[in-house]
Amino acid sequence: MAMKIIFPVAGVGTRFLPATKEVPKEILPVLDKPLIQYAVEEAAASGLGDFIFITAPGKEALEKYFAPNAGLDEFLARHGKERLLDDVKRFYGKKITYIRQEQALGFGHAISLAEAVVGDEPFAISLPDDLILSERPVMTQMIEVYEKYRSPLIAFMKVPREEAPRYGIAAGPMLEERVFRIEQLVEKPALADAPSNYAVIGRYIMTPDIFPLLRRGRKGAGAEIQLTDAVVELMKKRQVLGYFFEGRRFDAGTTLGYIETLVHVALRRDDTRDFTRRLLRGLVRDEKL
Ligand code: UTP
User: Fold this and answer.
1) Could you tell me if the CB of 11 is within 6 A of ligand 1?
2) According to the CATH classification, is domain 4-253 in 3.90.550.10?
3) What does pLDDT average to in each consecutive run of 10 residues of the chain (289 residues)?
4) For residue 187, how many other CB atoms are within 10 A of its CB?
5) Which of 45, 153, 198, 266 has the smallest number of CB atoms closer than 10 Å to its CB?
């Protein structure tokens, strides 16, 4: 099933200031590739190719990133750097629709802006901050579950309980291995109110009936229009599922999470693995001295 996929990238990125004052968070590199490219490559690996970016004023670098740069192409060709040229050209000509969110009114609001482009079909959402490394691309896994149940679906992972206040948290009965029916869902609950340690991760498959609920535009946690609130409304009308994906997620949107992301990606890549291992072992040894 080839769905459209929305990348909401219009957030202010306050947790990464001052770097994100001029450079969009999604352009920050993990080694030599910006975060957004990991997300786009992951979607492409799931067979998705119709991309919708919700961007913001001041984030033009994101739009430019996927557009041809004739000067650079010519330079690389002239210097015989064919591999690099292939790399930068990989996303030329991809179908990307850009929609402007003029004001950062929230993640839910950003999604609502895609209504006309999405039309009357189920669609995917991916947040590039959540970098996921997995053998089977996450959206491939999620589309399989969607095709079985035809219900909106949210990716989940279990987190240490004390971290629950940082996430959307859900609870409900398991329907099969990895799949549960969401019966409760709260955005960033106080620790005492968290119904479980099942945390929402930034991959979704939604159905178009979410749009009227987003349009109501109730302000939720952090005075922003939250997707979670619309999903809670949707749960009154139809079943919404949670899915514990196979793979490991890294929170590249915070400084500590970013360190972890860099190290893990470096340990998995052939050209950086040995160096990174030696570096880390050396550091551990030094620590003992
Ligand atoms: P976050 O809550 O991570 O916000 O948004 P943020 O602005 O990116 O980062 P911080 O919290 O200020 O550091 C979740 C996703 O929703 C998008 C963000 O770009 C991110 O991918 N978003 C958020 C929008 O597109 N518009 C908004 O108004 C808010």
Assistant:
1) yes
2) yes
3) 92 87 91 94 93 93 87 90 84 86 93 96 97 96 98 98 96 97 96 96 98 81 82 97 98 94 96 96 79
4) 20
5) 45
